[in-house]
Amino acid sequence: MPISTFNVKLMNEFQERFDYDLIILHYGTNVLNYGSYNYDWYERSMTRVVNHLKACFPGVTVLVISTADKATKYDLEMKTDSAVIPLTMAQRKYAVQSKAGYFNLFEAMGGDGSMTKWVEEEVPALATKDYTHFNYKGAQKVAGLLYQQIQTGYTQYKEMRKNRKTVPNQAAVDSVSSKTTPSNVQ
Length: 186
Prior knowledge:
3-stranded parallel beta sheet
């Protein structure tokens, strides 16, 4: 949230000097442990943050990356934290409201139970035993997933332009967001 206090004039000067193309925001995991499934407050705050960044860096694309999967112990078994899906939905909503791009990292990882798999089943392991953070190999895989999604979106964009079809004003780029529904919440 401190990003929303950036001095607009100063950031405009940075933009003029450095000509940024893309701002990537990847937040959320730290708010999962507040004991709530209602992220309206977070959605409102982050919408203000994105809109403030757009004022600070005019013309720069903002990409919101959702929280990754995070596992929590339920009845002696590590499972996707029940707050992950409501949080990803709030992140997608604020991305759409602020006309930012969106990448659903939770789904890209494999969705429900993916962090447990990344820790326990993948060889080599892709995440640490805290069931929250990626290790070096996991971070490389996430970078590859993001790069692949950006390349796929760019290819689709070029094809649409080539065919002279109108490019939709779609704020969210999320290949599998339709699978993320409230019914997945425990």
